[in-house]
Specification:
This protein is of the alpha/beta class. The chain is built from 16 helices and 23 strands. Bound molecules: nicotinamide-adenine-dinucleotide.
Length: 508
């Protein structure tokens, strides 16, 4: 893992952030961090050993009593300060994201903003943690409930949102009084490490927020450590399923979000121009590396299909593809050469399976960036449900068009698919839209919007193979996930009848 293809070692080594400090890795195992626009290795990242992860859990455990007993207002003030710091450093953080992930700067900035919205939500924690109180439930007896933190909790996150997805998790977990270990993607750890420094600067005591870089070994150490009470995961479905089963087996609370295949239904009455604009952004933004990317367009009726493909094709061909830091780029490269090759192999597969390649992104070259991990926007028509290009997540700039002849046929496609993350419908008919939202088997539904990503004060999560666990991320579901309820029944002297009572107590 630690060899560089050209022999020389990258200038920068990224370690871990534990107990309020940047520390070097000691495992002698490293991963590579690439600049996908240039195709060069920009850093190596330490991959933590089991023992190093256990030391991070030690630090989080030591910080726990002080942090859990800090008042919610104190914790909220750290979040207010953190929000201010992230805003002040937004340009630097966005550049880190763009340079390591490859998404264009405006998109990186937008994803940071969506993460910040979760910090803003966490600033309201005193209100969110208010319990329930019932006065005088029986003579002289009051009953109340409170939400208490779980303890040390951890988040394991994917490469495609190195700031936003961690920010779905740690601000709420920490505001609830837990201490947190983040195991970000080893492909783009730069931004999470800066967020850890900013949390410390914002006033989070050492050990409250730790970032440990690593791979399966680090994740398994989290799964096996009984002190880690809850795990939040976002990534691909096979790993989500693995994390869910292993964590649940150990009695941990777990929410594990997996992959997606999001459909956008275009009804015959839809405004085609609006639908095409939506598809361009949702299919090709961030080079399709979004769990809420639209990867399947479903025009209903042959006429709608003809109009849609005719309008889409020239737009896909005209996409401005370039370096993520180039302000004119609409789409950047893919995250690694390996991922670019995998996406390209799906286009080959689609061709073999009989899909019609309307726009072919294979072999796309960006002037001045011969080594970048670029792929052109690709449009596949006549894709059928039995094809693997339809069934599997591609996670790249490839949009498949699947034809439907009726509303029911269109409704069945996302509903019968193994993934159930997001879905959208474009129509001007309210009855159709309502019928669709009621019946479709997906967790997040959009009506005339391209990507139905709920805001921070609602919660995020799919259905079926897109989420394992009972609770979604962020919003009040997030607060519930990171706290446990304690219910207290209290009686004071008034109303106490002397002498023991051996029957089941009943309230009078
Ligand atoms: P991934 O599953 O490869 O990796 C996610 C995390 O798991 C990383 O931190 C990685 O280090 C770790 N990991 C990888 N292999 C592991 C193993 N064998 N054992 C333990 N841990 C392991 O996902 P990725 O490629 O980084 O991200 C892309 C995927 O994430 C896509 O499938 C995408 O749909 C999904 N995603 C889903 C959502 C959602 O909200 N549902 C959001 C973003 C991304």
């Amino acid at each position: 893992m630690d060899s560089h293809p050209h022999g020389e070692r990258p200038a920068r080594t990224i370690g871990h952030f534990v107990d309020g400090q940047m520390i070097e890795g000691r495992s002698e195992r490293y991963g590579e961090v690439w600049n996908p626009s240039l195709g060069t290795c920009s850093a190596r990242v330490a991959l933590a050993s089991r023992a190093e992860m256990q030391q991070a859990v030690d630090a989080a455990q030591r910080a726990l009593p002080g942090w859990a007993s800090a008042s919610p207002l104190t914790r909220a003030r750290v979040m207010f300060k953190f929000k201010e710091l992230v805003e002040r450093h937004a340009d630097e953080l966005s550049l880190l994201i763009a340079n390591e992930h490859g998404k264009v700067i405006s998109d990186a900035r937008g994803s940071l903003q969506r993460g910040l919205e979760c910090v803003e939500f966490a600033c309201g924690i005193p209100h969110l943690l208010k319990g329930e109180y019932s006065d005088n439930v029986a003579t002289g007896i009051d009953l109340y409930s409170m939400r208490q933190p779980l303890g040390v909790v951890a988040g394991i996150t994917p490469f495609n949102f190195p700031a936003m997805v961690p920010m779905w998790m740690f601000p709420i977990a920490i505001a609830c009084g837990n201490t947190f270990i983040l195991k970000p993607s080893e492909k783009d750890p730069g931004c999470p490490m800066r967020l850890a420094e900013l949390m410390l600067e914002a006033g989070a005591p050492p050990g409250v927020f730790n970032v440990v870089n690593g791979d399966k070994e680090a994740v398994d150490a989290l799964l096996d450590d009984p002190r880690v009470r809850a795990l939040s995961f976002v990534g691909s479905t096979p790993i989500a399923r693995y994390i869910y089963i292993r964590a649940a087996e150990q009695g941990k609370r777990v929410q594990a979000l997996g992959g997606a295949k999001n459909h956008l239904i275009v009804m015959p009455d839809a405004d085609i121009d609006l639908a095409v604009d939506a598809l361009m952004g949702a299919a090709y933004g961030s080079a399709g590396e979004r769990c809420m990317a639209i990867s399947v367009a479903v025009p209903v009726s042959s006429r709608t299909a003809g109009e849609l493909v005719e309008a889409l094709a020239p737009r896909v061909r005209a996409l401005t593809i370039g370096a993520s830091t180039d302000a004119s780029s609409e789409m950047g490269p893919l995250v690694t050469a390996q991922h670019r090759d995998k996406v390209r192999s799906y286009i080959d597969l689609g061709e073999r399976e009989g899909a019609k390649i309307v726009v072919d992104g294979r072999g796309y070259q960006v002037a001045g960036h011969p080594d970048g991990f670029f792929l052109g926007g690709t449009l596949l028509d006549d894709v059928r449900p039995q094809m693997r290009v339809y069934q599997e997540e591609i996670f790249g700039p490839v949009l498949s068009v699947v034809h439907a002849q009726s509303f029911d046929e269109a409704l069945a496609l996302p509903s019968d698919h193994e993934f159930g993350n997001g879905v959208s419908i474009f129509t001007r008919n309210g009855d159709v839209a309502r019928n669709f939202t009621q019946k479709v088997e997906c967790g997040m539904v959009g009506i005339n919007v391209p990507i139905p990503v709920p805001l921070s004060f609602h919660s995020f999560g799919g259905w079926k193979q897109s989420l394992f666990g009972d609770m979604n991320q962020h919003g009040t579901e997030g607060v519930r996930f990171y706290t446990r309820i304690k219910t207290v029944t209290a009686r004071w002297r008034e109303g106490v009848k002397p002498g023991p009572q051996f029957g089941m107590p009943i309230m009078k």
